[in-house]
User: Which sequence fits this backbone?
């Protein structure tokens, strides 16, 4: 089943705008959240089919939020792609261990991201 609804979690308004624009132009319905608290609010309002997750955020970081979502039976089926500037292999491995299905580094390569989204759907 192809993915249509995506939640983008990032504390950067610029990144939210860039990713929302890219995904919207490719037919996806996009909701955004700037932190963990807002992300959980969005999850309870409308369950997305995919989450794009930044790592470096104030308060709960993306690794912690990914782990919380992946362990919550209500949301554990939602795939998460880490979308971050943290480009070390150890970061990628840690993200995957927290429950992410894939990992993309910023600046995001549009074709790579869209290809990974299609592969999950």
Assistant:
């Amino acid at each position: 089943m192809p993915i249509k609804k995506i939640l983008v979690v990032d504390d950067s308004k610029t990144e939210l705008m860039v990713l929302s624009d890219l995904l919207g132009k490719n037919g996806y319905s996009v909701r955004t959240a700037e932190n963990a608290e807002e992300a959980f609010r969005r999850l309870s309002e409308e369950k997305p089919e995919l989450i794009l997750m930044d790592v470096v955020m104030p308060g709960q970081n993306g690794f912690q939020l990914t782990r919380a979502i992946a362990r919550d039976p209500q949301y554990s089926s939602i795939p998460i792609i880490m979308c971050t500037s943290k480009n070390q292999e150890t970061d990628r491995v840690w993200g995957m261990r927290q429950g992410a299905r894939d990992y993309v580094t910023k600046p995001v390569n549009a074709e790579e991201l869209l290809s990974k989204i299609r592969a999950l759907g």
